[in-house]
Design a protein that fits this description.
The complex is a heterodimer of chains A (about 260) and B (about 325). In chain A, strand 1 and strand 2 form a beta hairpin. With about 260 residues, chain A is α/β, with parallel strands linked by helices. Chain A is built from ten helices and ten strands. Chain A starts with a strand and ends with a helix. The mean pLDDT of chain A is about 90. Chain A is globular. Chain B is mostly helical and about 325 residues long. Chain B has two domains: about 270 residues, ABC transporter involved in vitamin B12 uptake, BtuC, CATH 1.10.3470; about 45 residues. Helices cover about 75% and strands about 0% of the residues of chain B. A two-stranded antiparallel sheet of chain B has the order 1-2. In chain B, helix 7 packs across helix 9 and helix 10 packs across helix 11. The longest helix of chain B has about 50 residues. Chain B starts with a helix and ends with a helix. The chains are: A alpha/beta (about 260), B mainly alpha (about 325).
Chain lengths: ~260, ~325
C-alpha cells in the first residue's frame, strides 16, 4: 500500500542549522497494516509523516501509495490518498466553520470542487450517524462552530474527517499527545474502532510505549533519521516495555538512553 | 440640520456604492485573512474602464462587465505575485496598486480625469446611477440611486451567499480559516487565494464603475485610501451588528450598512465645518482606533485566558507523568 524507498531529507542545508532528519528510510506497508512509530525527540518520526504527506519535497528517494508514485505530487494532490490527524488539535479543523461544514470539506477530499452545493441534506444525516459513533454528543451540534469544541472533541472530529472517505493511508502524528489522559484514551479508542472498521492502512506516531505495543500489528522505532527496530506479528504481540527499552539502548549505542528519550 | 437632511440621500447613495467595494474588501480581509491593498488601484481602474468605454458608446452593461473583469485581472496579478512569486500578500498588493496608477492614467488617455457628458439628457438617461437622479421631483423613485444601488447590492449579496455555500466557496473559506487543514483536505490553497483576490477586486472595480457614473466622471486619485474606507465599513458593521447578524448574507449586509453609516458620519462632520482636507486623517484615526480595540480587548482577556491555560498545562503535565508511570 505504502512504499518508501531510500528517502533523505536535510533541513537548512549549508547553514549552521543544517539537520539531516531522514537518512535513507525504507518502509513498505501492506494493505491493512497498522504500524505504530516510536522514537526520541528529533528521531525523524514527524519528518517521515510529513515527507509522505508532501509538506515539502524530499531530497532523494521515492514514495508511492497504492502503486502510484506520489514523490513529485504537491501536498493537496496527495490528500486524495491520505487522511491525516496532527498533534496540534488546532491544525486539523477550520475553527470558524461549522462541524458539518468541516465534514463536508473532508468528504470532498480528492474531488474537483465546483459549484455543486457545499453540503447536502443526505450528507447531514450521514454525518449525524458518523458523529454518534464518536459518542461525544457532537451529533446534536452539527451547526456549531468547531472553534467552540474542546481539544479532544476537535481531535476526534479530525479523525472522523480523515477516515470519512476511506483513505488508502491514515497518518496519525501523536494525535493524542496534547490531550489529558482520559480524553486521550477516548480518542485512541475511537482510532482503534475506525481503523478496524474500514481496515485502514495506518501509520501512528506515539510517545507512549504502552500504546505503541497495545495497538497495531507492527511497530517501528526510529533513531537519528533511520528505522532501527521493526517488529511485527507474534514477536510484536509478546513485546514488553522493558524489551523495547533494551532495543532502544542497543540501537542508539548509549546507556544514557532512558525512558525519558522515548517518552519525549 | 436642514442642510444635513438634504444631503442625507446623497451620503446614503455614496455609502451604498462604497459598500459594494467594502464587500470586496470583506472577502479578502475577513474570509481569506489577507489585507489586500490592490483595491486602492483597482477601484480607479473600474471607473476608468467604465468612463472610457461608456464614453465611446459601448453599452452600459458591457462597460460595467469589462470594468468588473479589469478588476479581476488586477486581483489576478496580485494573486500571482503572492502565490507564484512568494511575495507577502500585503507587498504584492502594494506593487499592483503602484503599477495600476500608470495603467489607470493610460486607460484614461493620459489624463488625470475624464468625465461623462451628463449634461446631455440622452447620455444621462442611459446611466444606471447619477447624483442627478437624487432629484425626486424630476426623476421617478425607481431611478433614485438609493433604490438602484440598493437593489444592486442585494443582488450581489445574494450571488455571494450562493457562491460561498458551494464547494468552491467553502474551499475558499477553509483556506482563510486554516490553510493546513485546507491542504490536508486536498484544497489547492494557491488557487483559492488567487480566486478570492480576483473576486474581491472585481467587486471593487464594479463599485468604481458605479461611483464614476454617480459622480459623472473618473479621477485618478478616486481610489486613494479605498482600503481604509473598506476596513472602516467592515469594522463599523461588525462592531454594531455582529451580535445580531449571524447569517453570512446578513454579515455582508452589515458591511454595506457600515459603509452607509461611515458616509453619514463624514457628511455630518463636513456640515459641522471641517476642512475636507482633513477627511483622510480623520478616517485613518477612526479606523486605527477601531482596529486597536480587538487587540486591547484581547490583551485584557488574555490575562484571564492565561490562568486557564496554566490549568490546562497542569492537566497535561499530569498526563505526562501518568505516561511515565505506565512505562
Amino acid at each position: 500500500m505504502l512504499e518508501i524507498k531510500n528517502i533523505w531529507k536535510t533541513f537548512n542545508a549549508g547553514t549552521v542549522n543544517e539537520k539531516t532528519a531522514l537518512r535513507g528510510v525504507d518502509l513498505t506497508l501492506d494493505d491493512g497494516d497498522f504500524v505504530t512509530v516510536i522514537g526520541g525527540n528529533g528521531a525523524g518520526k514527524s519528518t517521515l509523516l510529513n515527507a509522505v504527506s508532501g509538506v515539502w519535497p524530499v531530497d532523494r528517494g521515492t514514495i508511492s501509495i497504492g502503486g502510484v508514485d506520489v514523490t513529485k505530487l504537491p501536498e493537496h494532490k496527495r490528500a486524495k490518498y491520505i487522511g491525516r490527524v496532527f498533534q496540534d488539535p488546532m491544525m486539523g479543523t477550520a475553527a470558524t466553520m461549522q462541524i458539518e461544514e468541516n465534514l463536508a470539506l473532508a468528504a470532498r477530499r480528492g474531488q474537483r470542487r465546483g459549484l455543486r452545493p457545499g453540503i447536502t441534506k443526505a450528507e447531514r444525516e450521514e454525518y449525524r450517524e458518523q458523529l454518534k459513533m464518536l459518542d461525544l454528543g457532537l451529533e446534536d451540534r452539527l451547526t456549531s462552530k468547531v472553534g467552540l469544541l474542546s481539544g479532544g472533541q476537535r481531535q476526534a472530529l479530525t479523525l472522523l474527517m480523515a477516515a470519512l472517505r476511506k483513505p488508502q493511508l491514515l497518518l496519525l502524528d501523536e494525535h493524542t499527545a496534547a490531550l489529558d489522559p482520559k480524553t486521550a484514551a477516548k480518542v485512541l479508542d475511537a482510532t482503534e474502532r475506525i481503523v478496524q472498521k474500514d481496515h485502514l492502512t495506518t501509520l501512528m506516531i506515539t510517545h507512549n510505549m504502552r500504546d505503541a505495543i497495545a495497538h497495531g500489528n507492527r511497530l517501528i522505532m526510529m533513531y537519528d533519521g533511520r528505522i532501527v527496530v521493526d517488529v511485527s506479528g507474534e514477536e510484536k504481540e509478546k513485546l514488553t516495555v522493558e524489551q523495547l527499552l533494551a532495543m532502544f539502548n542497543q540501537a542508539s549505542g548509549s546507556d544514557e538512553a532512558d525512558d525519558k528519550l522515548l517518552l519525549g | 440640520m436642514a442642510n444635513f437632511l438634504n444631503a442625507l440621500p446623497g451620503a446614503v447613495s455614496q455609502g451604498l456604492i462604497w459598500g459594494i467595494m467594502a464587500i470586496g474588501v470583506y472577502i479578502t480581509y475577513k474570509i481569506l485573512d489577507i489585507a489586500d491593498l490592490t483595491v486602492d488601484g483597482s477601484f480607479c481602474t473600474g471607473g476608468a474602464v467604465f468612463v472610457m468605454l461608456f464614453g465611446s458608446g459601448v453599452n452600459l452593461w458591457v462597460a460595467m462587465l469589462v470594468a468588473f473583469l479589469a478588476g479581476m485581472l488586477a486581483g489576478l496579478v496580485t494573486g500571482l505575485l503572492h502565490t507564484a512569486c512568494g511575495i507577502p500578500a500585503i507587498l504584492a498588493g502594494i506593487l499592483t496598486q503602484l503599477g495600476l496608477y500608470s495603467i489607470n492614467l493610460a486607460i484614461m488617455d493620459m489624463r488625470a480625469s475624464q468625465s461623462i457628458a451628463v449634461t446631455d439628457n440622452g447620455v444621462l438617461n442611459r446611466l444606471l446611477v447619477s447624483l442627478r437622479f437624487l432629484n425626486t421631483e424630476k426623476f421617478p423613485f425607481y431611478r433614485h440611486p438609493i433604490f438602484v444601488v440598493g437593489v444592486f447590492t442585494a443582488a450581489i449579496i445574494a450571488i455571494l451567499y450562493w457562491f460561498f455555500g458551494r464547494e468552491l466557496g467553502a474551499a475558499l473559506r477553509a483556506t482563510g480559516s486554516n490553510q493546513n487543514m485546507a491542504r490536508a483536505q486536498g484544497i489547492n490553497t494557491n488557487v483559492t487565494k488567487v480566486l478570492g483576490l480576483m473576486l474581491s477586486n472585481g467587486l471593487v472595480a464594479l463599485a468604481g464603475a458605479l461611483l464614476s457614473q454617480y459622480s459623472g466622471g473618473n479621477e485618478i486619485n478616486v481610489g486613494r485610501g479605498a482600503i481604509v474606507i473598506g476596513l472602516a465599513a467592515v469594522i463599523i458593521g461588525e462592531v454594531l451588528l455582529d451580535k445580531v447578524f449571524r447569517n453570512f448574507a446578513l454579515k455582508l449586509l452589515s458591511v454595506s450598512i457600515g459603509a452607509i453609516l461611515y458616509y453619514i458620519v463624514i457628511q455630518a462632520v463636513l456640515q459641522m465645518g471641517l476642512n475636507p482636507n482633513y477627511l483622510k486623517l480623520l478616517t485613518a484615526v477612526v479606523v486605527g482606533l477601531f482596529l486597536s480595540i480587538p487587540y486591547w480587548k484581547g490583551k485584557y482577556f488574555r490575562g484571564y485566558k492565561k490562568m486557564r491555560t496554566v490549568g490546562i498545562n497542569m492537566v497535561k503535565i499530569d498526563g505526562e507523568t501518568g505516561g511515565d508511570d505506565r512505562a
